C-alpha cells in the first residue's frame, strides 16, 4: 500500500485561492481585488503590483521558477510562454526575483502564428493576454519544475477576441444581466449576480504506450485509421461500470491527486461502454473556471498516462466499431446566494419562474438549433454525431414525462392543473403544478436533456474545448430571457402576461421536445416533418456561425462582432481541411510503407509455400486460394491508394476556405474509407505475425 492520502489536506494546495489571498494580501488590496472579481471593477496598477508581488512570493515558496500567461487560442488546446522570475543581474552578479503588476495583468506573446482567420491581415499582428482574475492562478508541477500559471484571455491589438475565453466571459456577462432582469420580475431583490454553472463529464481511452508507438495513425491523428474489429467489442456491456483494473486504478489515483492539488474537484470515475474507455467528472463550477479546469483535466490525463506507460486518447472516435468519446456539458444558472434557476422548486411562484425559464430555454434551443449543433462540431465529432451512437446530429430536448405532460396541458387547455405521478395541485391563481424533483427518467439518446435541475448538452466532443458550446448556450438563453423581460416589464397584469408568454413559447417551440429514441430512423423522419435541422457534418454546420440571426444576436449581446464570427468560420474550415489532410496523408504513408510491403512479403511466402506443397505432391488448393484472395485485395488496396493520393493532392492545391473544406469532406473522406476497407479485410486473413502493427484487440483489451 502506498501512503495514505488526505484529500482535504491537499485540495487546492497549489492554488492562489481566496483563502491564500485573504491570508497574504493587505486587507484593502484583498477587498479591491474581490470587487474586481465580483463586480468587474477596474484594477489599478498599484494594487496589481501588490498582488503580483504576493503571488510571486507564494509561488516561489511552492518551488516555482517561472510564470506563464496560460491562454486558449483557437487551436483547441491551451498555449503558454514561460518567463522566469529573474530580473537583470545586479552589480554583485546576483539576481532578484521580480514580478510586476503589469506582468501579471498583461502579456504579449508573439501572436503571429496563432490562427486568426484573417483578423490579423486587417489589423496589427500584436496579440495581448489579459489576466482573468475570476479564475484563480495555480502552480503546476511537471518535468519543467514548478510554474505559476495565470489564466488569461487573448485579444488582438484592437480588442478582437483571438481565443475561446474572451467570448465566454462576454457571454457570461450577457446571461448574468438578463437572468437578473428575469428574477427581479419575480420579486427577487436580494441576489446580486447570476452565473452559469458548468460540470463537464470527460470521456477518454487509455492504451499501452508501447503499442501506441507502433501506430502512426494514433501518433499523427489521435485515432486509428485502419483496423479490423476484434472478435469481441462492447456487445456484452461488461466494461461499463465494471471493476477498474489495477493499472487503471493506479492511473486514476494519480490523476485525482494532481487535479485536487490544483483545485479541480475531480469527483466521479468509472469505466465507460467501450473497452479501454473511461470517464472522469468534476463537481460543477462557474463556467469560465469549468472551462479552465476541463483543459487541466485533459492535460493531466495525458501527462499521467505517460507516467504510467500508457497514452490517453481524447479523440472523439479512436476506434471504429465501438463507442466514441464525448463530453456531457451540464449547465445551469446559479445566483450568488445559491439559487438555481433551473430548479423546479417547491412553491408556486417559483414554479412559474421555472416554467418561464424552461420555455425560454426551449425557445432558445429551437431558434438556434443550428448554432448549437455547430458549437459541438469538430473533425472528430463527425464520426459520432448522427452515426448511430452518442446523440444524433438533430438537436431536440428531452424533458421527461412529467414536464412534457405539464407543457401538454398548458398547450391544450392553457392551464396546467395537475402533475403526473399523483402530484397534488398546489398552486395558486394560475394553477401551475408543483413539480416533484426526481420525476424525470434518463434518456441517453437525447442531445439536450433536462436532468432534474440542469440541462445536459451531450453533443460536445471529447477533445474539444467546452468554451464554444457554453458561449452559445449562455447567449441564446440570454436572448430569450431578454425578449421575455421586454414583454413582461411593460405588462399591466404581470400574472396574466407571464402565463400567456409561457403558453406562447410552449406552443411555438414544442416541436423541439422529443422524449423517444433519438437513434431510430423514425425519429429522423419525424424530425424532418417537424422542420428540425439535421446537420450531418462539421462543414455543413459552420455556415450557422455567420447567418444573419446569429450575427444579430451575438452583436446585440456584445459577445462576437460580425468580423470575429467570420474569422472563426474561416478558422474552422481551415482546421477541418488540415485535420483531414493529415489523416489522408497518414493513411497514404501507412498503406504505402507498411501494409502493402507487408502483404507483398506475405504473398511471396504463400507463393513459395504453394510451390513447395505441390512439389511434395500434396493438395495446395487452400494455400493457392488464399494467395488469390489476398492478391485481389492487394490490387484493390493499390487502386484505392492511388485514388486517395490523387484526391488529396487536388484538395491540397485548392485555396483555403469553405470550398476546400467541403472537398475534403465530400471527396477525400469517402476515398479514405475506400482505402481502409480492403486493408481491414486483409488484416483478417493475413498471418498476425506478418501484420505490421498492433490490432484493435491488442490495443483495446491489453492495456
Ligand atoms: P450523471 O448525469 O452522470 O448522473 P451527475 O448528476 O453526477 O451526473 O452530474 C454530472 C455532472 O453534472 C457533474 O459534473 C456535476 O457536478 C454536474 N452538475 C450537477 N448539478 C449541476 C448543476 N446544477 N449545474 C451544472 N452542473 C451540475
Ligand atoms: Mg450525465
In words, what does this structure look like?
With 703 residues, the protein is α+β, with helices and mostly antiparallel strands. Helix content is 49%, strand content 12%. Strands 7, 8, 9, 10, 11, 12, 13, 14 and 15 form a nine-stranded mixed β-sheet that branches. Strands 1, 2, 3, 4, 5 and 6 form a six-stranded mixed β-sheet that branches. Helix 7 packs parallel to helix 15, helix 14 (401-413) packs across helix 16 (494-509) and helix 20 packs parallel to helix 22. The radius of gyration is 28 Å and the shape is globular. 48% of the residues are buried. The protein binds adenosine-5'-diphosphate and magnesium ion.
Write the layout of secondary structure elements.
Layout (H helix, E strand, L loop, with lengths): L6 H4 L7 H7 L2 H13 L5 H17 L2 E7 L11 E3 L16 H5 E2 L11 H4 L4 E5 L6 E5 L2 E12 L8 H21 L8 E15 H5 L2 H6 L24 H16 L4 E6 L5 E6 L2 E2 H21 L2 E4 L13 E9 L12 H20 L1 H7 L21 E2 L2 H13 L34 E3 L4 E3 L9 H23 L4 H16 L11 H10 L7 H4 L6 H9 L5 H54 L5 H32 L5 H28 L10 H6 L2
Parallel strand pairs: 1-6, 13-14
Antiparallel strand pairs: 1-2, 3-4, 4-6, 5-6, 7-9, 7-10, 7-11, 7-12, 8-9, 12-15, 14-15
Helix pairs in contact: 7-15, 10-11, 12-15, 12-16, 13-15, 14-16, 15-16, 20-21, 20-22, 21-22
The structure holds adenosine-5'-diphosphate and magnesium ion.
Structure at a glance:
This protein has 703 residues and is an alpha+beta fold. The protein has 23 helices and 15 strands.
